[in-house]
Automatic annotation (TrEMBL):
<dbReference type="GO" id="GO:0070967">
    <property type="term" value="F:coenzyme F420 binding"/>
</dbReference>
<keyword id="KW-0560">Oxidoreductase</keyword>
<feature type="domain" description="Pyridoxamine 5'-phosphate oxidase N-terminal">
    <location>
        <begin position="13"/>
        <end position="96"/>
    </location>
</feature>
<protein>
    <submittedName>
        <fullName>Pyridoxine 5'-phosphate oxidase, Rv1155</fullName>
    </submittedName>
</protein>
<dbReference type="Pfam" id="PF01243">
    <property type="entry name" value="PNPOx_N"/>
</dbReference>
<dbReference type="InterPro" id="IPR012349">
    <property type="entry name" value="Split_barrel_FMN-bd"/>
</dbReference>
<dbReference type="GO" id="GO:0016627">
    <property type="term" value="F:oxidoreductase activity, acting on the CH-CH group of donors"/>
</dbReference>
<dbReference type="GO" id="GO:0005829">
    <property type="term" value="C:cytosol"/>
</dbReference>
<dbReference type="InterPro" id="IPR011576">
    <property type="entry name" value="Pyridox_Oxase_N"/>
</dbReference>
<dbReference type="InterPro" id="IPR052019">
    <property type="entry name" value="F420H2_bilvrd_red/Heme_oxyg"/>
</dbReference>
Length: 143
């Protein structure tokens, strides 16, 4: 299992994956998001990327404990990426990145999304204070 296998699985399910983060008490918080594999906007390293709403628990958890586990499945096969997480958004500056609206578009597209009105998309992302999340693979495994 490698990151290309993960990309294939995620794209086969319209980018739907499960993201797990750690709460302050050590328990696991998980949600379903759309994610894709893309190059990190600053380093160029392949990462798993998704967009998180500004007030979401997963974003709060990632600010305090920047690690995530992302699992994709396709049929009876599954793949998991575990790694460190970085954030980029209106409340989470990422050194070397200036264009957050374009970044969120790129993440959305990497996750298989399309949009008829990018200005509307940008306005929604801004209003909801959405941030990009990049999980740098430390471990990739599955069947």
């Amino acid at each position: 299992m490698d990151l290309e296998d993960f990309r294939t699985m995620a794209s086969g399910e319209q980018g739907l994956v499960v993201v797990a983060t750690a709460r302050a008490d050590g328990s696991v918080q998980s949600t379903v998001v759309n994610a894709g594999v893309m190059d990190h906007p600053v380093t160029g390293t392949p990462v798993v990327a998704f967009v998180a709403a500004g007030g979401s628990l997963k974003l709060k958890n990632l600010r305090e404990r920047p690690r995530a586990t992302v699992t994709a499945r396709s049929g009876w096969r599954w793949g998991t990426v575990e790694g460190s997480a970085e954030l980029a958004g209106p409340d989470d500056a990422l050194a070397g990145l200036d264009d957050v609206p374009q970044l969120l578009r790129d993440i959305f597209t990497a996750a298989g999304g399309t949009h008829d009105d990018w200005d509307e998309f940008d306005a929604t992302m801004s209003r909801e204070r959405r941030a990009g999340v990049f999980v740098t693979p430390g471990r990739v495994y599955g069947v």
